Amino acid sequence: MENTTMPLQNRVWPDGELVSHPCRGLLMGNRGGQIHDPQTRTIQRHQASRRWICCVLTFKNRRRQVMGAGYTELFFLDEVTALAAGHRPCFECRRVEAQAYATAAARHLGLEAVPGADWMDRQLAPERGPRWQGKPADGAALTSLPDGTMLTDGAGFLALKSGRLLRWSPDGYAATSPVSRLRVITPALSLAALSGGYQPIWHHRT
Questions:
Q1: Helical pair 117-124 and 95-109, crossing angle rounded to 10 deg
Q2: C-beta neighbour count of 20 within 10 angstroms
Q3: Based on the number of CB atoms within 10 Å of its own CB, is 60 exposed (0-12), middle (13-18) or buried (19 or more)?
Q4: Strands of 11-12's sheet, edge to edge?
Q5: Which domain of life does the protein's organism represent (predicted)?
């Protein structure tokens, strides 16, 4: 019998939108707690707090029902997608990566000390969600952007890797023809981390 179960609304697009889609991702995360109704397993709000993180899929053999009580599991194609959506590495399950992200951002921004989670979340918060429209990027600006930058052309999303733009999809990336009128949607703090040398996880289809 055909499985007609509707996918849960817990897949995250690069612009931060939560959608129902059968795609599987390399990372999960959450937005500071529970943003769904455990009875209906439907999304009720955009966030629980500013603590938007991206995590490994499994950690210390912990098991729980997806969209049960406690917090809402969200899933990302890869870390490039998660960073674009306004999430950052988790300091619990991805401590090494979180410290590398913070150190890289501090290096690029010229900060005297490596920032903590609260400071980073305050910086990321204004550039998250549907009201964040990104910043214009012309052809010249593209050369100054780091690998892992996510952009939009209004019709979809594109990621910058090794000097070329790749068209994003829920299943991976593909080559694309030249595009114009691009806007950068990756938040400034994550751009700083990428520029400072942070290496995000990419989906294998690049």
A1: 70
A2: 12
A3: exposed
A4: 18-19, 11-12, 74-76, 27-31, 52-55, 88-89
A5: Bacteria
Model confidence at 131: pLDDT above 70: no
Beta strands in the chain (DSSP E): 11-12, 18-19, 27-31, 36-37, 42-43, 52-55, 74-76, 88-89, 135-137, 150-152, 157-161, 164-169, 172-175, 182-184
Over the chain, what is the mean pLDDT?
92
Q: Are strands 42-43 and 36-37 parallel, antiparallel or unpaired?
A: antiparallel
Asked if 101 and 53 touch (Cβ cutoff 8 Å), the reply is no
- Domain definitions of the chain by residue range: 133-186
Taking only Cα atoms into account, the Rg of the chain, rounded to an integer number of angstroms, comes to: 17
Q: Is 20 helix (H, G, I), strand (E, B) or coil?
A: coil
Picking from 15, 20, 24, the residue whose alpha carbon sits closest to that of residue 41 is 20
Contact 43, 94 (CB under 8 A): no
Amino acid of residue 7 = P
